[in-house]
Write a structure and sequence with these properties.
Helix content is 25%, strand content 32%. The chain has a 4-stranded antiparallel β-sheet. Strands 4-12-6-10 form a 4-stranded mixed β-sheet. Strands 7-11-9-8 form a 4-stranded antiparallel β-sheet. A hairpin with a 2-residue loop joins strand 8 and strand 9.
C-alpha cells in the first residue's frame, strides 16, 4: 500500500510538472483601443517570449488548436471583432507552444471547446503540371532560418513588394510568401475560396511565392486598415494558381474536423 501511495505521489508530481511546463509563466492580455489599432503580428523571441499584436480570440484559437479559421464555429459575437495585445513568457520550446496557448485561453478567456467531424465541401491543393513542375512564381527558398525582423511599418503593409519572412503578405488580389511551405499556403487560400483547403501536393520544403488574381467581390474581403487594393484586372485565383504557381484546386467532399466554442469570456484586467 505504501508503495502504491508512493507511485501515486510520483505520478501527481510528474503531472503537475508537465502542466507547468506547458503553461506560460507570465501572461499579459490587454484589449486594443480601436483608435490605436496596429497591424496584426505574431512574434516569438529567443528565451520563450511571445507577443501577439491586435489579434482576435478566433485568431488565437486557430493558433492554439492548429485549425483554420473556417473550422471554428460557435462562440460569442465579439470573438472575431474584439482585438487584444498578448505578451507571454514560458519555456523556449516551439513544440509546446500550442499547448501553452491552449492553457492561456482556458485561464484568461475561460475558453471551453469541443471537436466534431462533418462531411463538408473542400478543395484539395495539388500539383497542376505533370512531373511536379513549379510555376514561374514559385521558387525554392534559400536555406537558413528567418532572421528577427522589426514590426512592419504602415508603408510596408500597404506595399505588395514587402513580404515578411516565414509568413504571407495578403492584399486584395495579391498574395506573397517568403520561406513558407505549401501546407501553410492553404490558410490564406481559405479566405479567398471559402472552403477548407487540404494540402495534397506531397511537396515538402520552403518556398518564395507571389500570386496575383482578379479581385472579384466574392473572392475575399477588401483591403483593411488602410491597405491599398490590388489589381482588379487579371485571372481568377484558380487560373492564377495554375499559371503562376503550377498548382490547382480540385473540388471535392471530405471529413472536416470542426472546433466548436461552447464558452468564452473577455479577459479580466491584468
Amino acid at each position: 500500500m505504501a508503495r502504491l501511495s508512493g507511485l501515486a505521489l510520483i505520478a501527481s508530481i510528474a503531472l503537475a510538472t508537465l502542466c507547468e511546463a506547458q503553461s506560460f509563466t507570465v501572461v499579459s492580455v490587454k484589449p486594443v483601443d480601436p483608435a490605436a489599432r496596429q497591424a496584426i503580428s505574431m512574434r516569438r523571441f529567443p528565451g520563450g517570449r511571445v507577443t501577439a499584436t491586435s489579434v482576435t480570440l478566433k485568431f488565437l484559437i486557430g493558433l492554439a488548436y492548429g485549425v483554420q479559421d473556417i473550422q471554428i464555429s460557435g462562440g460569442p459575437d465579439w470573438m472575431n471583432r474584439a482585438e487584444f495585445n498578448v505578451n507571454a513568457e514560458g519555456e523556449d520550446d516551439a513544440a509546446s507552444m500550442p499547448l501553452m496557448f491552449q492553457s492561456l485561453l482556458e485561464d484568461r478567456f475561460k475558453l471551453a471547446v469541443r471537436r466534431e467531424t462533418k462531411e463538408l465541401p473542400i478543395y484539395e491543393l495539388r500539383m497542376a503540371k505533370t512531373g511536379g513542375k513549379f510555376g514561374p512564381n514559385l521558387h525554392e527558398a534559400d536555406a537558413g532560418d528567418c532572421p528577427q525582423e522589426p514590426p512592419p511599418t504602415p508603408a510596408q503593409i500597404k506595399s505588395p513588394l514587402w513580404t515578411p519572412c516565414g509568413a504571407f503578405h495578403s492584399m486584395r488580389g495579391h498574395l506573397s510568401g517568403k520561406k513558407v511551405t505549401l501546407r501553410m499556403l492553404t490558410s490564406p487560400l481559405i479566405v479567398q475560396v471559402g472552403r477548407p483547403v487540404l494540402d495534397e501536393t506531397g511537396v515538402t520544403g520552403k518556398f518564395d511565392l507571389a500570386l496575383d488574381w482578379t479581385a472579384e467581390a466574392n473572392l475575399g474581403p477588401p483591403g483593411d486598415r488602410g491597405q491599398a487594393l490590388g489589381s482588379t484586372e487579371g485571372p481568377s485565383i484558380f487560373t492564377a494558381l495554375r499559371e503562376q504557381l503550377g498548382l490547382k484546386l480540385e473540388s471535392g467532399k471530405g471529413p472536416v474536423e470542426l472546433l466548436v466554442v461552447e464558452h468564452a469570456e473577455k479577459p479580466s484586467e491584468d
